[in-house]
């Protein structure tokens, strides 16, 4: 497996990304902790499965190259500060550029996979880009952007944590009401899980439900990207 930091050129400038593997491409969309060891490990795992995984630094306009963990209060504060400054629409411009780069660098179709903030961005990637298949884990604030769902024309899978501290029950109900009957959207609920239940080493990590979600994700990408 080959892994390296690369540079992607978008409409607003150049930004870095972590790339691993080869084959059909999957763009990995970061949590609020940026392109840290967790995102790199996800890319490495995808590479072992036969994908080209590319994780762009979407906070480059704020503080390029930063990497944060979820282990200290100070880092959580820093992560939320970056999140508060993040321009989602500019981030989607960078994601579209990354999808375009991945289509040239890979060997076939291009998917996207996002977590937390990246889960929201995954949903918007399905709405705004030509990615061939998209998966989002416990995406935040999707309920505020459901008016864009009519633009989804390719497969989207969402993993929803039933007890997500950042996505309350009312928000989840809005997501289900808007998307349950959408012909291109599949939603899986994990009723007893909290936010970031698939983050290995995280406070809410749950091995069996993480494995279930990841198995569903692998099958989804195999079906739609290979």
Describe this structure in words.
The structure is a single chain. This protein has an eight-stranded mixed sheet with strand order 1-2-4-3-5-6-7-8, with helices on both faces. Strand 7, helix 5 and strand 8 (185-190) form a beta-alpha-beta unit. 43% of the residues are buried. The chain has six helices and eight strands, in the order βββαβααβαββαβα. It has 226 residues and is α/β, with parallel strands linked by helices. It starts with a strand and ends with a helix.
Q: Judging from the principal axes of the Cα atoms, what is the shape?
A: globular
Helix-residue proportion:
25-40%
Number of strands: 8
CATH class: Alpha Beta
CATH homologous superfamily designation: Alpha/Beta hydrolase fold, catalytic domain
Distance between the termini: 19 Å
Low-confidence stretches: none
Mean pLDDT over the full residue set:
96
Rg result: 16 Å
Strand order of the biggest β-sheet: 1-2-4-3-5-6-7-8
Counted by DSSP, the helix tally is 6
* CATH topology heading: Rossmann fold
Q: Describe the biggest sheet? A: 8 strands, mixed
Class inferred from helices and paired strands = alpha/beta
The fraction of residues assigned to DSSP E strands is: 15-25%
Order of helices and strands: EEEHEHHEHEEHEH
Q: What is the name of the CATH architecture?
A: 3-Layer(aba) Sandwich
> How many domains comprise the coordinates?
1
